[in-house]
Amino acid sequence: MIVHDRQFCAFGHTMAGMDEVGRGSLFGPVVAACVMMPAEPLFSWVDDSKRLSAMRREELDARIREHALYLGLGEASPREIDQFNILNATRLAMKRAASKAPASLCLVDALDGLQLPFPIRAIVHGDATSYHIAAASIVAKVARDKMMEEWGIRYPHYSLENNKGYGTAAHLAAIRKYGVTPEHRMSFLKNALSGIGGDT
User: Fold this and answer.
1) With contact defined as beta carbons under 8 Å apart, do 27 and 160 qualify?
2) Residue 19, CB half-sphere, CA atoms under 13 Å: how many?
3) Three-class DSSP category at 106
4) Angle at which helices 54-67 and 131-154 pack, to 10 degrees?
């Protein structure tokens, strides 16, 4: 994965990687991370966050945070997702994550249309082929999972600590029974459910 990134570094770029998590969730924000990693040390097991166990992700998250040259997190709220749509909200979260990155190039996992102060290279399956994007995917995933655990305490009926806000059968059943919370994405629920209402 680092070989893929180094083909760009060879041209003198200070490189960042960026990825997001939570685009398909029914609940909570979409979260993006922008990460700039040093040439050394290189961490084994850095990969697409979806391929890693929770324990491995948390271990790597701590190492990445300790050594990163830059680490930024950005969010777009459920209301922003409803207002702008998920694609534009994802772009907004990424813009916030990368706003202070001292980069001359940013590798992004297959998303274009970003408005950033430096060039962007969108890479298909970047979280599985780019070290920097994979590192960003890990940071974003761990950050959002922690949010869901905290929301799970506030809204215990929805098992958010387990489903991370995604539309599992149990989550949909809980919405039907208890209604929606202020953190649910109404634009996502319109097609998933009918006849729901009320805050919990």
Assistant:
1) yes
2) 29
3) strand
4) 120
pTM over 0.85: yes
What DSSP string runs through 43-73?
A: PTT---GGGS-HHHHHHHHHHHHHH-SEEEE
CATH number of 2-146: 3.30.420.10
CB distance 46 to 32 below 8 Å: no
pLDDT digits (tens), the chain, 200 positions: 777 787 777 556 789 999 999 999 999 999 999 999 998 888 988 988 989 999 999 999 999 999 999 999 999 999 999 999 999 999 999 999 999 999 999 999 888 899 898 999 999 888 888 999 999 999 999 999 999 999 999 999 999 999 999 999 999 999 999 999 999 999 999 877 764 544 44
From residue 14, give the alpha-carbon distance in Å to each of 94, 140, 193. 18, 21, 46
Task: Write out the E strands in the chain.
Answer: 15-21, 30-36, 70-76, 105-109, 120-123
DSSP bridge partners of 33: 19, 73
Kindly report the number of other CB atoms within 10 A of residue 82's CB atom: 17
